[in-house]
Amino acid sequence: MPDQKHPKNILTTADGCPIADNQNSLTAGPRGPLLMQDVVLLEQMQAFNRERIPERVVHAKGSGALGTFTVTGDISRYTRAAFLNKIGKQTDVCARFSTVAGERGAADAERDVRGFALKFYTDEGNWDMVGNNTPVFFVRDPYKFQMFIHTQKRHPETNLRDLNMQWDFWSLSPESLHQVTILFSDRGIPASYRHMNGYGSHTYSLVNAAGERVWCKFHFKTLQGIKCMDDAHSAHTIAADRESHQRDLYESIKCGQFPKWRFCVQIMTEAEAEKFKYNPFDVTKIWPHREYPLIEVGILELNRNPENYFAEVEQASFSPSALVPGIGASPDRMLQARLMSYADAHRYRVGTNYQQLPVNKPRCPVMHYQRDGHMSVGQGGGLPNYEPNSFADAPKEAPEFREPGLPLGSDVVADRFNHRIGNDDYTQAGDLYRLMTEEQKSRLTAAMAGALMQVRPEIQQRQLCHLFRADGDYGARVARALGVSMEQHMVSGDGRAVAAK
What we know:
By secondary structure, this protein is of the alpha+beta class.
């Protein structure tokens, strides 16, 4: 018989075999038991048991979209990254936005930091910009990251979110105050993913064609304008729609209202970094815009919804280690740790070969000596799986992409340095507070006091000490709202009792 192909709309098994009856199981008679030879039923049950992969430890609840990035400003003097060096050049992008602390079933409109992750499918490999909607973070040393995330999750005994855990950690970690101030400010609850900024947060390096390095921070400024919610609006939104941000992003793109962001960079030379008043690689600090103004690079537009959420969003895997020539890391401790931990998490959660999935696969040729593992599609073919080798068509290193060395000084000692010594964790948080209007200050302090009211007194007072160190009015307003007399006794940032002045 001649070969026959069944129509595309015929229901089949995963092996492509047509299914004649998908309504009735194969049984021994009308009332008889099931038969093991009903391979269609077995396949469906087996696949159903395996439909879920582990959710992300953080950023579990997320929404995604796809689009393009278009260069509008030439920054070739700073970086050799090819996708940034031609005005008008377009690069495909995959974006994922998320809350940080909640599980996959959490509500979108909760007070929380938002994740802002982008995958640029460049001609020289994938560049992942994995950031948040805030320019700083809660901790500056990766030793504290896991501990911080534990406080945002569930109590090991009660299995409930616990404000005592959160504020106990924050009040013992003064470096978190800058981020905590943002979290409880008017920007603590974005109205939607479209109406918030995105930041790389960390300091990165840019290297140009001449091998010259500068330090850089990435900013994505929403062109929809900043819109946020207060606690009452958030509670109303959650009661009506727990998927409010997902719905807003999907429906805005569906109706042609494509969200856009202006991509900008801040640039600091190596010489300027030596004289900067803060550690320029401290993720709890910003670079003041008046000293390091934003330089426009291009426009990000999201203009396509995923056709399948699981394939294009849930399996999308972003890692700071996905870097392209011209964009590199820095001595930022948190970034250094994330370079390993994110890719490692994806290999656990999605699989060893997660980069071979369509949503994660680079659009340029991929050639390396990694082989096999779960779900490999045979990447590398019959070429050698070792290096060095003498085969002319096997992948070879490319010395022309080498970055310049990073001088660390002749007296560098490998040690566990106390990151709090010499660090001012209060000035920038206080500066932010003093920039606010009276109405903004009232809402910030009311929101913070509302959360602290549910916390043990000693934690309250420890946190109040940090607020007073940032700004006297900041601390006084929260103290009054809590009904706490700061004349009785205070505790220092490390928990020791001190006399009130």
